Amino acid sequence: MSSIGILQRVLYDRINSLKQASASRRIDTKSLQTEVTQILGQLEEIRTSIPRGCSQHLRLVYSLYSILHPLPSDAFGTGTDYVDLRIRCEILAAAYTPMESTQPSVRYWFGNLGKSYNTRFGISGDTGDLNLSTEYQRQSVSLAPGSHIDVAAQFTSLGCNYMTRFECLVELEDMENTINCFEKAVELTPKDDSNMPNRLDNLGLAYCSRFERLGQIEDINKAIELQEQVLSVEVAEGDTDVPSWFSNIGNSYLRRFETMGEPKDLDRAICCHTKAISLAPEGEDDLNLSSRLNNLGNSFMARFEQFSQHADMDRAVEYQTRSVSLLPDNHPDLAMYLTNLIALHLTRFEHIGELIDMDKALEYQLRSLSLLPISEAHCDLAVALNNLGDCYITRFGQLGSARDIDDAIKYQTKAMELTDEDNPSRIICLSNLSGSCSS
Question: Which InterPro entries does this chain map to (predicted)?
């Protein structure tokens, strides 16, 4: 027996023992990780000596993969350790699997590599992982027979990858590829397939994203046309996707209103966002509900700006307040939502003059300020400090409290100190500070 044959036999016994220990939970995760890493290292060392299609070596790789595959993505901790091992194993499997093999095929391993790199991108945020995920998924789709049952699903996954990459890199080519993939997914899906509504919705979202990038009205019209088709499909009562469909088309109606100014679109946006909230299942995730409340608040604010009805402003404040209350302090959207809510209270104060709105604006300004990193290089901090000073000045004008003018001077002074001398905003800071000092 050759030296490689002997090593294969040793690895076969070792993997079988490991599989039994893992199945019976007689091995801890740290030891399992160490053992799998060592075996993979040995398999990789002899990779160049093994021809593609070597059935004995393939069995070793498949057997090792069968140990890894059922484990959760955090099996070896919160980092990328687990998915790194999966990727190494899948690369070996793809390298050894004959191109003509069907069970499993090279296409299968390319598809798995696409998923694994996407998982690692979700952990690492490294666009290199996203690029590899996209490339492997593209290769997997390119090798699929046109009539294969899962091609539509693969086009959907590939389209989602292109969409994510567009959001990261803002390359228009990725958006074009997104639309092409989603269109093929819809084309290959039978009309009565339960996946059809979500695939139509994906395509509608892609057209809406391209509209936001290029501003071409035909894109938002197409998005709404597709999303209206989604809502026309009969689905089971209580389908958990329905609230998202109403939310998405509500956003599209609002985008079209902002461009075309047609009041009917604004009414439709409010109607759809209201349904998205009312149809949400009991106990829905707070983050989803917060987003939908924010959308509805934005729609009422848009109608207030159009018709100046105070009832619309009140509803906008109500929904935005509920939206903010559902977000934790570390949520990336909280600062933006607080900014919207501050603007609402200030606008209502300007129209109605009730001091409670100025008090609320100050409360949310202080909370927003607490979320910013304390860094003298952080330009947003200077803006927030200056805005906070403006609020105190406005309240001083209402109440005449010396404490408010002192706070205004304190925050505006700090804003000026954080603003570079050659920054045009420094003139505004100086002007505001000068006005406060002379009050």
Answer: TPR-like_helical_dom_sf, TPR_rpt
Query: Which residues are CB-neighbours of 128 under 8 A, at least 6 positions away?
Result: none
Cis before 104 (ω within 30): yes
Measure the CA angle with vertex 82, ends 81 and 86; round to 5°.
120
Confirm if 415 and 386 have CB atoms less than 8 A apart: yes
Contact between residue 273 and residue 243 where contact means Cβ atoms under 8 Å apart? no
- Closest C-alpha among 289, 290, 297 to residue 316: 297
Residue 79: CB atoms within 10 Å: 12
| Cβ within 8 Å of residue 396, ≥6 positions away | 404, 405, 408, 439
Q: Report DSSP state, residue 390.
A: H
Angle (deg, nearest 10), helices 217-232 and 196-214: 160
Q: Which two tokens stand for residue 401?
A: 């409290």
- Across 126-153, average pLDDT: 90
Q: Rounded distance, CA 363 to CA 360, Å?
A: 5
Sequence-distant (≥ 6) Cβ neighbours of residue 355 within 8 angstroms = 349, 395, 398, 399
pLDDT in tens, 229-261: 999 988 877 889 999 999 999 999 999 999 999
pLDDT at 82 (0 to 100): 96
